[in-house]
Amino acid sequence: MAVIGEFVKKAIDVYGFIASEPDPAKAQLAVLEGLLTKAKLTAFGKKHDFNKILNNVDIVEAFQQAVPIHDYDKMYNDWWHYLLEGHQNVTWPGGQQYFALSSGTTSTSKYIPVTDDMLDSIRKAGIQQVMSLKNFDLPGDFFEKQIMMLGSSVSLIEKDDHQEGEISGISAGNIPAWFRAYYKPGVEIASITNWDEKVRRIAEEAPGWDIGSLSGIPSWIEMMLKEVISYNKLNTIHDIWPNLQVYTSGGVAFEPYRKSFEKLLARPLIYIDTYLTSEGYLATQKRPDTSSMALMLDNGIFFEFVPFSDDTMDDEGRVKPDATVLTLEQAEENVDYVLLISTVSGAWRYMIGDTVMITDKQRSEIKITGRTKHFLNVVGEQLSVYQMNQAMQTLQKRFDIEIEEFVVSAIRKNGEYINKWFIGSNRVVDGQEFATQLDTELRELNKNYNVARTKSLKGVEAEVIPVEKFHRWSEEYKKLGGQTKIPRVMKEDDFLDFEQYVHGLS
């Protein structure tokens, strides 16, 4: 076994033994105090009197009373647009070198500030993730292998006083010098903006690499692996990368992709979920006997939780001003919450757009359950993406198919609402039978959906289509690769446009 690899492994074991997990309440209070102290002389800190908050007996309560909840539009319109115009000390000390362009499930680009402190936070989170590998019983030589990080282009857009790009590209462009020897596909290939060209170059170079782990969004990692296998005339990816042992997933739930993903392997990998967003690295899976992720409690991000219900959310998917807001200490397990974050990039009580569920409070572990605006509740269905994924996993087994993508909308038919689904699969099955089974499964998973089906939700329809049609739509209307995600829920007009597009494909 490699000497260097064994040394690294032992160093990780020792560090992990010494570095015990922080007390959640104390760690989060320290983070909030640190955020307020550092930002108290910014325009935002002066506006909301951070000095007064810091002198309060209950800093958390004072903070929640003084600072309003922000979604992106409010944060940008009130504050962040000044950063794009070149102003300094707006929501965080200093100027602004990077903006992350979000490319999730919304069509409009968002400009998220990425400060030097946030880049440090992301690097520290990455180290925490590496240190947690001690829990996964990996051999020493694993730590000498290369890491394939498939993200957005590291070739950023140059503006007068800052650079713009996706967070994965910004992060990859700022990796430590010592890590570059392990990083693949390397800066040259990672700078390529055309997805097809980038993947072809990876396929060409693949025989010369010794990849031990993969990192990236499941659908795009899968497409890359297929190209490498096809180009090099392989049976599985292990024919060319025999030491591949770990896949670090992010962006979306991995489980719906597992069945098709594992067809590309000679043996299953160790799967590790992460929660890296344009706004920061929020959580990572730290142990093998769960798919939940542990929040980064002491790394420049303060978390708050809003119960996800009609009482707390308005019709636009925003948190109501009078909504109940809880700290991690106050929140409960197995409840859907809207996540708020305050960060070292100058996001304050910021609604990131995700809903999460605390699965283990003692370990501060969570699962992502959906998006606030991709929660289907037009006629009382109250379906989360988490429940949709659960149903899809069941139907994969029942129909013996692979379901990689899906999208749903509440649309009007003959004057009444139905739920219409498009299912992206490896083979087509009868849509009517699929819809019947899906409806039954969702009724069992969600009592509110079951009630809606007896009242205002008059039917369920489904079309099972080749998953390539989703990819072609993504390529044409959004962009392929990087952090791009296909929405699970669409508004009616957008859904009808999508339906027209896929019906127009041969």
UniProtKB/TrEMBL annotation:
Residues 295-361 form the GH3 middle domain. It comes from the Bacteria. Residues 387-492 form the GH3 C-terminal domain. This is GH3 auxin-responsive promoter family protein. It comes from Spirosoma soli. The lineage of its organism: Bacteria, Pseudomonadati, Bacteroidota, Cytophagia, Cytophagales.
